[in-house]
Specification:
With 190 residues, the protein is of the alpha/beta class. The chain has one domain: Glutaredoxin, CATH 3.40.30. Helix content is 36%, strand content 23%. It has five helices and eight strands, in the order αββββαβαβαββα. It has helices at 3-30, 71-90, 101-111, 125-128, 168-173, and strands spanning 34-36, 40-43, 46-49, 59-64, 92-97, 117-119, 141-148, 151-159. The strands form two sheets. A six-stranded mixed β-sheet has the order 1-8-7-4-5-6. Strand 5, helix 3 (101-111) and strand 6 (117-119) form a beta-alpha-beta unit. It is globular, with a radius of gyration of 18 Å.
Length: 190
């Protein structure tokens, strides 16, 4: 296919994606919120409740991260680190994993992460939110919460994985003729 023809077709698909996103935003605005318990998490400073994570805002992004054993979750977290100041200006933002707070702190320092991290170790939070597999493993994703009249509601969530909308690496690879071509993320590339 000629370059100009392919570009026109791809632009058409991108326009369709924009229209679908508009329809998705409309549905998102109509979702009936799900009331959530005020879970307790572990930090280096001690325990912290979900309700305290809103940092004076009404909205909270919680990233379900599988921890230091997952290079994919690390890839996503590296990307979130770059946009964290922008996100945190609009809504509170935290990353939660099963790792102990000391492990999280060390790993975050090595990667230069700036966002807050908490451990859901010993709680049912990840499982209750749907981010635990049937075999007992952890699953990656995003939950969005709102605080309304002193109560916490989940208003949105979705799973993360290769090719999703929340990791630009995959979309940049899509611009290459061979795509990702079997590429897998690693913790380091030296």
């Amino acid at each position: 296919m000629k370059y100009d023809e392919a570009k026109d077709r791809l632009d058409g698909y991108r326009q369709q994606i924009m229209e679908i996103r508009g329809a998705m935003r409309k549905i998102q605005s109509e979702i009936e919120p799900q009331r959530i318990n005020d879970y307790t998490f572990k930090t280096l400073e001690g325990e912290q409740n979900l309700s305290s994570l809103f940092d004076g805002k009404d909205d909270l992004f919680v990233i379900h991260n599988m921890g230091t054993s997952c290079p994919y979750c690390t890839l996503w977290a590296d990307g979130y680190n770059g946009v964290y100041p922008h996100l945190a200006n609009r809504a509170a933002f935290v990353v939660i994993s099963p790792d102990a707070p000391q492990t999280q702190q060390k790993f975050a320092a090595e990667r230069g992460w700036k966002f807050p991290m908490l451990s859901h170790q010993g709680s049912t939070f990840a499982q209750d939110m749907g981010y635990r597999s049937e075999s007992g493993g952890w699953l990656p994703g995003i939950s969005v919460f709102q605080r309304r009249n002193g109560e916490i509601f989940r208003v949105s969530d979705l799973s993360e994985g290769p090719g999703d909308d929340f990791c630009t690496v995959w979309h940049l690879f899509d611009l290459l003729p061979e795509g990702a071509n079997g590429w897998q993320p690693r913790f380091n590339y030296h």
